[in-house]
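SEVERITY: medium
COMPONENT: batch folding queue
REPORTER: lab tech (J.R.)

DESCRIPTION
The queue accepted two submissions in a row. Attaching both inputs and their returned structure tokens so the on-call engineer can compare them side by side.

ATTACHMENT 1
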Amino acid sequence: MAGHSMREHEVYSKLRAPPSSRMILRLDGRGFHRLTESLDFDRPYDEAFRDLMIRTCLDLMEEFSPSLIYTFSDEINVLLDSVPFAGRVEKLDSVFSGFASSSFTRGALEAGFSPVKPVSFDCRVIPISSDIVPEYFRSRQDESWRNCLNSYAYWTLRREVGARRAAERLRGLKSDSLHDLLFERGVNISRVPAWQRRGVGVYRVPHRVRGYNPIRDEEVSAVRMRVKVDLELPLFTDEFFEGLMR
């Protein structure tokens, strides 16, 4: 090994994201179905779990100042405003997944939950051109809707016939049939809370603040940006992203 630097043996250490692209990081909770079961969260949705995911998003927002964070279920999508770590993919993957894992764990412990196993997120780096950013987030919001419909159908039927038979009866059913199944059991899926159907957005919005100018002895106002947690997120449109992407 004489004459060789150990750095030469690091795999992909020089792999960087394209400098001309926008950057999205997608984080997914590892084994979160077992985690939520062990912590006895409500199914199919639990506000305490939602709030832990939102808290993790707020920590990410404070640390990395992205343009948008979008979360549903155990997934977090981060649209970066600027790319840290010189775009080094290994660094982005490891730091963001580690940060989210420790943030969620800290939030869970402070909220009185004690995970039986270490909590972990995985992370993937998605370089993307600016013009298809809205399309990407629309596709994730579509997945949020499918997740909502399938989860309500499964857990509603599971309470009726048990886990195995519920899975068998739902196999291959299209969305119209799932709608009908739920409606027959008193669940109007289009009226469940918006955050369950469309996910949650965390982003900055302008906010007017009032102050006082002692030199002129007058009230003044200024526009500041503050972080908004949007539980009534609209369907993503191109216009939504025009205000976010600088």
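ATTACHMENT 2
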Amino acid sequence: MRDAVIVEAVRSPIGRRKGGLADVHPVDLSATVLTALLDRAGIEPGAVDDVVWGCVGQVGEQAGNIARNAVLASGWPESVPGTTIERQCGSSQQAVHFAAAGIISGQYDIAVAGGVESMTRIPMGSARRVGLGDPNSDAIRRRYEGVEFNQIRGAETLAGRYELSRTWLDEYSLRSHQRAAQAVDDGRFAGEIVPVTLPDGTKFEFDEGIRRATTLDKLGQLDPVLDEDGRVTAGNASQISDGAAALLMMSGERARRLGLTPLARVHTATVIGDDPVTMLAGPIPATARVLDRAGLTLDDIGAFEVNEAFASVVGAWLRATGASEDRVNSLGGAIALGHPLGGSGARLTTTLVHHMRAEGIRYGLQTMCEGGGMANATIFESVAAR
């Protein structure tokens, strides 16, 4: 049977909103990681059958099928196609799923999966502000009469449901920054980050959102976002960011013929729908489903990447699954590194497979919540450990 393996994975440094990547067009940011990906692998661009690219805010500079535009901006042959998909925050994790499915089915020999988001240049929610109507139709409003679709409200609901105090959320967020800072100091991201050349010719090379000087006291001084007695603050939520990531995928047999050593193979992939009001609890049933389909248990997994959309998302997942926090987001997460929506899934995969290789971990699991009450979950297996 054909399988799907990842032979190379790269990402840009993650820029803060209005930070180091603010002047970089998202098409050019995408082209940067695409070019670096194939350069590292030594693959000719014309061999790529398709580029499957995640992007959430598909308006303005990110409209018009940014995947295809990124291919053209990369200077790749015009024969290389590209398609852009949107599954909210899980867009580029879904891109990995689609690319894997195309490879396993024989539709692709070589594919690139990834994604991008410039939240500076295309602010979150831009597609809802262009004056073309409400995406929630009358039928949806009737079904959920009187209900507010609000991710921050969902994060508050999870915190209450799983008895996660404001202190716990802030303590977790502080650990995210500390872990990310330690990862930088230890050179753990050096193998995955590719520098971005800015319009002025300088290089942007480091994740910009890590706050080394933050403390629990500083986090505790931030006001709640919604209610006066709320628990969710800007400090225990993911950062608005700019970034891109890309993965080179093919069958294991093709990798062997090309003399390439895979980082990991896609073992099992799933996506699930859940309550769209709470919205953020999907990673819990998604994890259960992907483990069941893989024939594995939580104890088989050596590393987890659970997207830190909010600290309460990870906290709820930890409480529901019983997983050890030591194995979850051990290099920091979106609270410290940032959450460039359409690029985050591929960023998490990139970090996870490099971490698995560095630590000799056989199985890694990635999951993330998504708008509308969905969640992707993926199990990767180290090829060397098979």
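NOTES FROM REPORTER
Residues 166-185 form the longest helix (20 residues).
No errors were logged for either attachment.
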